[in-house]
Amino acid sequence: MDFERRTRRIQELNLTPLVDIILLLVIFFMISTSFVVSDSMELSLPSGKAEASAQRVTRILIQPSGEVLVNQQPMDGNALSNHLANLLAVNAEEKIAIFTTPGVSVQQLVSVMDMVYLTGGKNVQVDKIEVPYGT
Amino acid sequence: MELDFERRSRKPRAIALIPLIDVMFVILLFFMIGGHLEAFSPVAIDLPIADSGQLLDEGPVKITLAADGRIDVNDALFTSATVAEEIRRQLANNPQRIVTIKADANLEANQLVRLLEQVRAAGGVNLSIVTQSGLVGG
């Protein structure tokens, strides 16, 4: 009698171990997946000193305030992209050198590079100035 | 009527697990398909946001620059003084190796440029810096 009753009970499948395992998998994937899509920008290396003076180069200097100086002229973001579009329309191979000054963050540098690449610039080089500009 | 009600309330002793399993399966599928697994890095960084980034393969030389100045070359930690030698060692056999740089968005750009100069000094030519697209990162 007792044996018979037991076999009838086990007809329902025990789902608790399944739930345990699925919960572990959910936690594993929640912790280890990332939804950030990372992209890359190709970058030219800083030029040697001799090469810089030999050819016509557009110099973009980034200041910590976010303002940029293009060949010594202060510009904001819109003016910079217009200026770059004009330059690149004349000469698509225009050399562009981006200079960072102390206090400029990587995000500011990448934003300016982004603007140059989006307007079609290809010859981009990055260099730095060790002393704060204008002091 | 009364009896029937009593019998029903006594029956559902075991909680129904099927809906729970259904929901967890959906969550599991969402994370498995929606995201992607990423190698764990000993230094955590915020990638800078840019729109013009392309999907490029990561190079064999991966350099991570954290906001606090720590430098990680292929999962080993270096300081700004010792990293130049490591880069030279990595590029000694083949200067064409692709160098992938992940720099924290809040890092001083001059420190990034200093590293670029060290890569250049070691003879490196293929270089890319990693960004994230603004749409997702926001």
Properties at a glance:
heterodimer; A: 135 residues; Nucleotidyltransferase, domain 5; 2 domains; 5 helices; 43% helix; B: 138 residues; alpha/beta
Report on the structure:
By secondary structure, chain A is α/β, with parallel strands linked by helices. Chain A has 2 domains: 2-32; 49-128, 2-Layer Sandwich (Nucleotidyltransferase, domain 5), CATH 3.30.420.270. Chain A is built from 5 helices and 7 strands, in the order H-H-E-E-H-E-E-E-H-E-H-E. Chain A has a 5-stranded mixed beta sheet with strand order 5-4-3-6-7. The longest helix of chain A has 17 residues, at 16-32. The termini of chain A are far apart. By secondary structure, chain B is α/β, with parallel strands linked by helices. Chain B has 2 domains: 2-34; 61-137, Nucleotidyltransferase, domain 5. Chain B is built from 5 helices and 6 strands; from the N terminus they run H-H-E-E-E-E-H-E-H-E-H. Chain B has a 5-stranded mixed beta sheet. In chain B, a hairpin with a 5-residue loop joins strand 2 and strand 3. In chain B, helix 3 (83-91) crosses helix 4. The radius of gyration of chain B is 26 Å and the shape is elongated. Chains A and B meet through helix 2, strand 1, strand 2, helix 5 and strand 7 of A and helix 2, strand 1, strand 5, helix 4 and strand 6 of B. Strand 2 (38-42) of chain A pairs antiparallel with strand 6 (127-132) of chain B.
Task: Give the name of the CATH architecture of the largest domain in chain A.
Answer: 2-Layer Sandwich
- What is the overall pLDDT average of chain A? 79
| Poorly predicted residue ranges of chain B | none
Any idea of the CATH class of the largest domain in chain A? Alpha Beta
End-to-end separation of chain A = 98 Å
Given as residue ranges, the uncertain stretches of chain A (5+ residues, pLDDT < 50) are none
